[in-house]
Specification:
It is a single chain. This protein is mainly alpha-helical. It has a domain of 44 residues. It has 14 helices and five strands. It is globular, with a radius of gyration of 26 Å.
Length: 329
């Protein structure tokens, strides 16, 4: 399969990001100063976990923190998030899946493609707003505070001055660190995290394919337990795309390179597998004589009933000529 030709500047950016991921380091800049963020060793991670656990156990009953169980009520008081919004999230996710499937099915129709892309964008925006409101007060919980302590320990032991190759922070005096400076550095680090969409672009790039295809079992120089999160994600995504390319109904490259359309293809494949399993389950409950009848009573659960009904819909052609299934709940 021939991949889509990318602009030279895009290819160069993906190439640079690939090098960054392979190195396990990040080169950062702030106020004309350069810094290097290295991957934490297992010892550093274990110590950070211990700091989390100790603080959590010591402050489990402190009133200064908001209990996760009380967050829904506090959100209601603030007028940010209501019980009905949980149902909104479920419905939006269903709509998003449906829109992605429609995008895949209508990808060659430019007008329909743009229509479904616009719908997907709107749904994602609505979901992001709801998720932001839902987690607006999470920073007041003990769990979030402990997570911040964990991050502080890791950053203090992995962030170096580029020019001197010395640690930027001294953890023993970390409490005296200027909070504004530290928060600014954290913002720089956060903004340099490679998001999932970009990782997918890297995985489908010719540069990464040439590296990965010839050395799948030893892409990085260290063992898997020492992989960075981005390295883990890159390997997992590569394996996922391998399975897609090997699938008997592998989609065209333009589908594979479109994140939402590819999601739609995978959802369609998931629906096919579900229908096949449901059909096999129905057949296993019927004798050969019963299976030839037009009307069948099948004891089943409510959830299974919906799946069986789908089998008899006009678009699926029904099951062994059955035009209607009687469902005994």
């Amino acid at each position: 399969m021939a991949s889509r030709i990318l602009k030279p500047e895009v290819q160069e950016r993906l190439r640079n990001l690939t090098h960054e991921i392979i190195s396990g380091r990040k080169n950062l800049s702030y106020n004309n100063q350069r810094y290097t963020l290295t991957n934490p060793s297992l010892d550093i991670i274990l110590e950070a976990d211990l700091i989390y656990a100790q603080y959590y156990n010591d402050h489990l009953y402190d009133d200064q923190f908001l209990s996760p169980d009380n967050i829904p009520l506090e959100l209601i008081k603030c007028g940010l998030f209501f019980p009905g919004n949980e149902e909104d999230i479920k419905n939006y996710n269903k709509e998003l899946d449906s829109a992605k499937k429609n995008l895949f099915k209508n990808y060659k129709n430019e007008k329909q493609k743009q229509k479904h892309k616009a719908k997907i964008k709107t749904i994602k925006e609505n979901l992001n707003k709801l998720y932001n409101f839902k987690h607006y007060l999470d920073f007041l919980t003990l769990e979030k505070h402990c997570e911040n302590l964990r991050h502080e320990y890791i950053i203090a032991h992995t962030l170096y001055n580029y020019s001197t190759n010395t640690l930027l922070f001294n953890y023993s005096t970390f409490k005296d660190t200027d909070a504004s400076f530290f928060n600014s550095i954290m913002d720089v680090i956060t903004n340099n995290i490679i998001d999932l969409s970009t990782l997918k672009k890297i995985v489908t790039s010719e540069y990464w394919k040439n590296i990965y295809t010839h050395n799948k079992n030893n892409v990085f120089k260290h063992c898997a337990t020492e992989y960075t999160e981005e390295q883990k994600n890159l390997i997992n995504l590569s394996a996922m795309y391998d399975s897609i390319y090997q699938h008997p109904e592998c989609p065209d490259d333009n589908i594979i390179e479109d994140e939402d359309a590819l999601d739609g293809w995978m959802l369609v494949q998931k629906d096919k597998i579900k229908r096949q399993k449901t059909q096999s389950g129905v057949l296993s409950k019927m004798s050969s004589k019963v299976a030839s009848q037009d009307h069948v009573m099948i004891p089943t659960s409510q959830e299974e009933a919906q799946d069986i009904i789908a089998l008899s819909e006009q678009e699926t052609g029904g099951l062994n000529g059955i035009k209607r299934l009687g469902i005994n709940l």
